[in-house]
Design a protein that fits this description.
This protein is α+β, with helices and mostly antiparallel strands. Helices cover 53% and strands 10% of the residues. It has a 4-stranded mixed β-sheet.
């Protein structure tokens, strides 16, 4: 079976942006984009909740040529799926058990789990929760852990190589590049090494296309 259509349910300045970036890297403009307004509650519409009971983005619908439809709802899984489905894009080292591929998988998962969790806690307690529910202690702990544990790891890698996992752009950069962009919007990753990294990523046409709607988001 081959893929007949890809449809992404997307909202600006969310983790669906990394999936949109991946799609532009592997298929250009050959996918359907449906934007959701999360502030208006589009994610709670019954039709969308039927696609993703977690009521969040991203959601990627994969329509195959036999008419079957598969729905994917985890950004890291979607990025890996697209990388595997498009080997010509060279987003993953080709040898399944190679140290290089293992490193890409590890950093991609690190970005989508540990790093995502810290950034989400900050966004939740600084921006989203009603004021009485915000926890300054949670904010302080998340910021300290990010600055003391995450930033040094990423900075050391970027001092050695231009990309997170070496000299070549990979699927790990789709996740971690998005995380660095997200972190900088919250006053983190301020070192020049991260500016240089984002400048390098920003030269990719797919990056510019994926984040062309970020200014439409109300702070």
């Amino acid at each position: 079976m081959t893929i007949a259509q890809l449809k992404l349910f997307h909202a600006p300045a969310t983790r669906s942006a990394r999936v949109r970036w991946a799609l532009h890297e592997v298929v250009g403009e050959a996918f359907v984009l449906e934007r959701l307004d999360l502030a208006a509650g589009d994610q709670f519409a019954p039709a969308f909740a039927a696609l993703n009971p977690n009521r969040s983005v991203p959601v990627l619908q994969v329509v195959r040529d036999d008419g079957s439809v598969q729905t994917l709802i985890e950004s890291a899984a979607i990025v890996l799926f697209l990388a595997d489905a498009s080997p010509a894009a060279c987003l993953l080292p080709p040898e399944p058990a190679s140290p290089q591929r293992a490193d890409v998988l590890q950093m991609l998962q690190f970005g989508a789990t540990s790093v995502d969790r810290l950034l989400w806690q900050l966004r939740l307690h600084e921006k989203l929760l009603p004021q009485p529910e915000r926890d300054p202690g949670e904010v302080e702990r998340a910021r300290r852990r990010f600055q003391q544990q995450v930033e040094p790891q990423l900075a050391e890698r970027l001092r050695q190589h231009p990309y997170i996992c070496g000299s070549a752009f990979t699927a790990a950069d789709l996740v971690m590049g998005h995380n660095v962009l997200w972190a900088r919007s919250m006053g983190l990753c301020g070192e020049r090494i991260f500016q240089r990294y984002l400048a390098l990523l920003g030269r990719r046409p797919a990056f510019a296309r994926a984040f062309d709607d970020i200014k439409t988001v109300t702070p």
